[in-house]
Amino acid sequence: MKIFRSFESAEGILNPVVTTGSFDGVHVGHKTILRRLRTLADTHDGESVLITFHPHPRIVLYPETAGRNLKLINSQEEKLELLRKTSLDNVIIIEFTREFSKVTSEQFVREYLHNILKARVVVAGFNHHFGFNKEGDYKQLWDLRGKYNFDAIEIPEQEVQHETVSSTRIRQAISEGYIQRANAYLDHYYIIMGTPVSHSTGSPGQLPPLLRVPLSEDCKLLPACGVYAVSIEKSGICSKGMAVIHSTSATTNEVLVHVFEDHDKYKGENSILSFHKKIHGTINLADSRTQYILDAAISEISELIY
Fold first, then answer.
1. Residue 25 Cα distances to 48, 61, 65, angstroms
2. Domain boundary among 115, 132, 165
3. Fewer CB in a 10 Å sphere around the end CB: N or C, the chain?
């Protein structure tokens, strides 16, 4: 998969079959759209293209309201990692600014999809809107297809029946700690990517060794506080582990991980943490009973098949 950071750098893509959207979570509904892109690209001897935006438009447009506390399932790095596992050929990441938000839907079609990309097919989900004030939709694409020489395809609602509910339900499930439910909606494990660093609990010898996983973006959504069965992977190495998410303040949560094998090998290495199951609810690392809770959790996770 090729990654471009502007429309101009993506010139020359062969017979582009294009869709646009946030694709936060790269969930089962998104994968339906990407599979259709793949089929259409093969039919037209072309390449599939996803146009997405960073930062999220709501953060830019509504920093004091809808975007103020917006939490996303994936950081940009995580989303790209998940997209690499699909059949997508190209992703174009456009910096979303207030100036760009003023581009009308027809301007977007004319200047970017037609003049630069020379899109062969434009694919839209049944409820997709784009352009200034979200004025563009599939009907407009259909009306413009002759003028700008592309085909317009809509993905029917029944084909992406999960898409209208997944993003909202996934975020709710994650924030409430229902990881297995979220994974079912996603059609893959919920992940956190980061570079683990040493962590001191202040209770040497009482708790298992823990690494802290810093988050790359403040808007990353974390599961509810608790203890989780996870797997951790880097450079082809994969180990079972236990993740502890606990509150460090009223507004900030922290991710700690104990790796069962090769614990120190993950320190300082970019890693992918995959969440499998919640084992225990909120814990207090300063509580003397926490040692027994974590020991029991480690024993339970060790018996899990994953």
1. 19, 21, 22
2. 165
3. C
Instruction: Give the residue numbers spanning the domain of 241.
Output: 189-303
CB of 35 closer than 8 Å to CB of 155: no
Note the pLDDT tens digit of each residue in 176-233: 999 999 999 999 999 999 999 988 765 545 789 999 999 989 999 999 999 999 999 9
Is 197 found in the same domain as 146? no
- Three-state DSSP class for residue 257: strand
Q: Which two tokens stand for residue 1?
A: 């998969």
266 within a domain of the structure (yes/no): yes
197 and 156 belong to one structural domain: no
What string of DSSP letters covers 108-153?
IIIIIIITTS--SEEEEETT--BSGGG-B-HHHHHHHTTTTT-EEE
Does pTM top 0.90 for this prediction? yes
Tens of pLDDT, residues 146-182: 999 999 999 876 565 544 557 888 999 999 999 999 9
Neighbours of 16 (CB within 10 A): 27
